[in-house]
Amino acid sequence: xxxxxxxxxxxxxxxxxxxxxEEPMYPLIARARGTPASRNPxxxxxxxxxxxxxxxxxxxxxxRRWMREAVPDTYRPDYGMMDLDREIEEISGNALLLSGPxxxxxxxxxxxxxxxxxxxxxxxxxxxxxxxxxxxxFSQLMYLMKRYGAQVDLSGTKGAGMYGTVEVTxxxxxxxxxxxxxxxxxxxxxxxxxxxxKERTPDMQxxxxxxxxxxxxxxxxxxxxxxxxxxxxxxxxxxxxxxxxRNGMAINTQLQAALSI
Length: 261
Hints:
Radius of gyration: 24 Å
Number of strands: 7
Number of domains: 1
Number of helices: 7
Distance between the termini: 92 Å
């Protein structure tokens, strides 16, 4: 005779079962965040690689609970390294130990484009450029920038998701330094570039002479803006740059006057 199969109603429920989560056998992170030259997302992934290698499955509620309850703090990366805020960095994605490397990579990529427009032969005033950023990544960057103090305008979006145009405005240089911190890459400053002339002496030594600098300037009247279009997957970045001579005098006096308002 065929065996009677238990109906779904008679099967015991798994709800309410206590699950013991064991700790990992070794730290997920091999090194702390940020000494110069130890991290460059374009070439060196040693900071994130142990975690990325360990997590090869879809993030499930069970895995999230395991990360929250079972992983000791000593096994987590130093989110607050140097000038970064620990809580903001962890909440905006690094708590999952997956989006963190992508956040750093794309912010470093945008930072590199900013630095490329601060060369000695570059002009002053307003400059713009576009860069590709996937919507899933920009939503993380948007949240991170908002937590640091940026103003986020979602009036151009439709529906519950981030569909349409998002505008992020930063009016503080301190906030901008947090967002594009060199701690995310190799320690460089993406918002300032110093200029030098090199002189070769008769005994073949090279002497560098400081000739000034070009830097990003940010105020309420001259903000740093990122306008993101989700349908194109591109972010339009606009900011103001000022040049100073070796004595600290501004080259663009009209822009300097506007910054003082």
